[in-house]
Amino acid sequence: MLADLKRRFPERNGIRHFLVTEVTYMSDYEVCVAAIDLETSQIVRPLQWNRKHWPSQMVAKGLVPGRVVRQRIRSQQNARGYPHHTEDKQLEGALEITEFALGEDDLFRTLVPVVDQSISDIFESNVVDGKYVLDGTKCRSLGSLLVKAAFVLFEENRYHRPRLRIRDSSQAYDFPITDLRVRNALDHAGSKAVAGAIDNAGRRGEKLLLRIGLAHGWDGEDKGWNPKRCYIQVNGLIFQAKPGF
Predict the structure, then answer these.
(1) Alpha-carbon torsion angle 145, 151, 156, 161, nearest 10
(2) Residue 80, C-beta contacts closer than 8 angstroms, at least 6 positions apart
(3) 115-239 CATH
(4) Which candidate, 177, 155, 172, places its Cα nearest to that of 232?
(5) In CATH terms, is domain 2-104 a member of 2.40.50.140?
(6) Which pLDDT belongs to residue 243?
(7) Most buried one in 22, 44, 46, 142, CB count within 10 A?
């Protein structure tokens, strides 16, 4: 389906089209976006010209997973350092939101062919303690996994922050969820609705497509970690069918 989208949205006059794969909560005012560049079929992190992320108000205008957006890529890129530099793409202007969007099931089918085999595969064997990658590591910062929903456990920690327990082909993990849609569902429907949607998918024998990424480097509560640590997180949770929350 990516090939079909590339034919439908070719590059014209330097304007690239991107299929949004995940929208990540950063603050009440800002979201992070990852997308597939339909010209190159590579995963990228579109940024504003000044390397800032995107105003959260754009979500109400249609900046959601499955949406096709467009803009020119700047000829000069100001790197902010690895690992995020691997996918960062500064754009010339604001993301233009098209009318075209894939539904949940079509987005799932479109992204399945480009999933990774494991967490270690995504981050090229640079994961420390199953939790983070050291800031400055020259590796990817975005990827995806296809997992059986029956083996995914949703829970909130003691600080009421959402997390997923998952297992890839070789190891079990426990990651925070920064998916904006999940966070909005928690605010409006509660944790039982999210956990129930995952449980129902598991009972139907379905799989979940997890969009995986790295947080910005953190130097710890006492500012003593050098290099900083980029913690692994679940940026997006895509169901085979609309989850219902």
Answers:
(1) 0
(2) 51, 88
(3) 2.40.50
(4) 177
(5) yes
(6) 86
(7) 22
